[in-house]
Amino acid sequence: MEQIHNKYPIYSRLLILLIGLIYAFSVSKDPVLGDSLVFTLMANSGFDFNSNATNHILYSNLLALLHQIFPFINIHFLCVSISVISGVLCLFFLQKLLNVFNVSQKSIFMCIMILGFSFTFWRVSVITEVYTFYLLFVILFLINFFLYLKEKNKKYFFFTSLLLGLLLLIHIQSILFFPAYVYLIVKNFRILKRNSFYGCIIVVSFFSVLLIPVVLGHHPFVNLFVMSGSENEVFSINFNVVLKSIIRNSGFLLYNFLFFLIFIFWGVKDKANFDYTIIFITPFVAFCVKHDVSDSYVFHLVPYLFLMVYIGKGIDQFPKINILLPLLLPLLYFSTAKIMGKTSVGKNIEKEKGFKGGVDYMFFPSLHNTPDLSLFLERYQTDSLYEKPELRAMHPFVLKWEDVRKQY
């Protein structure tokens, strides 16, 4: 039994490689309609150092740099490879994070499958989007954060500060980490002393990079945090939207993790650093609830990391549990897509969203069989897609992609 336990880290690495291969074969022929397409075209156009809320300055310019270095590689596959590689690295470092929380090796193996095969994580790992790249640095940030709490070694505090600064350059939603960072400093000030000041200087220094385009007049300061035209919505609350958002986000949560959520009830019995967990996840949950958008599930990713911790701790309480149980997740997604495709609801989805992949796109995370964007152009007039503002806004980007694709 001890020999099997010692081999779990090796099994976990082999599992991660297998999941990486699955991700690689889950990539679509063209960029996905939406931000994925926009990021791909941005990379093709070159560097962009504006720091508005949707630019993600470090990520978008990394894609542009890679395109400059490898111009002969199809830019779609080049850009999406960053998501695939980042997704694989996320799962690798998830092992390290769960080790910090003293989760058993068997439970770590299962948590890699649970997160790796969850709908949201699988989907964002196979599209050109900032999320797995961002989540990779979030995991590194959390590892150092909780290692500091565990060992009280100041080097982990400085790494935490450095990574928080980098996270601000990747995605401005990283300001939601500030309450936990400040709480860490206040609670450990007697140990940190002046080092807390140095840590803050590191974070502020990185944040000041975002201010350069503001000073140069490229965009207003408020657009660091919100999209242009949404400034008045920051502090407004619509309770109907909140209720709808709670229902929608609960559905995402259940679809991602099914009955594995039950293990949280056993996991949270371990109260070590639970106060930090609450302070970490509360701003993200509040953000998701306040903004009811169709793709709000991507903002769940940070809280999902903490769910993995407590699901893992909960699974530890059941040593005889079948280690392959998480394979039910992809089986459920595949079955749901096939069953829904035969229903009247599924047929309506195919009619409305067939150009994006229809039922498979909605219920199965792989995009391998997603139609290329030429189908969108065919249906744009015949199915009156131009009547929908969000699709009308995408039309010029698709036309531009058609020109770019001819280069390969």
Give an account of the 3D structure.
Helix content is 67%, strand content 0%. It contains 20 helices and no strands. It has helices at residues 2-24, 35-45, 57-69, 75-100, 105-116, 119-124, 131-151, 154-170, 178-187, 189-192, 194-215, 239-257, 264-267, 274-290, 301-315, 328-340, 344-353, 358-363, 374-382, 389-405. The longest helix is centred in the N-terminal third of the chain and has 26 residues, at 75-100. The protein starts with a helix and ends with a helix.
Fold topology:
Elements: H1 2-24, H2 35-45, H3 57-69, H4 75-100, H5 105-116, H6 119-124, H7 131-151, H8 154-170, H9 178-187, H10 189-192, H11 194-215, H12 239-257, H13 264-267, H14 274-290, H15 301-315, H16 328-340, H17 344-353, H18 358-363, H19 374-382, H20 389-405
Helix proportion: 55-70%
Count the beta strands: 0
Order of helices and strands: HHHHHHHHHHHHHHHHHHHH
Structural class: mainly alpha
Distance between the amino and carboxyl termini: 53 Å
* Alpha-carbon Rg, integer: 22 Å
Residue runs with pLDDT of under 50 for 5 or more positions: none
Give me a quick take on this structure.
The protein is 67% helix and 0% strand. It is mainly α and 408 residues long.
Key traits:
408 residues; single chain; mainly alpha
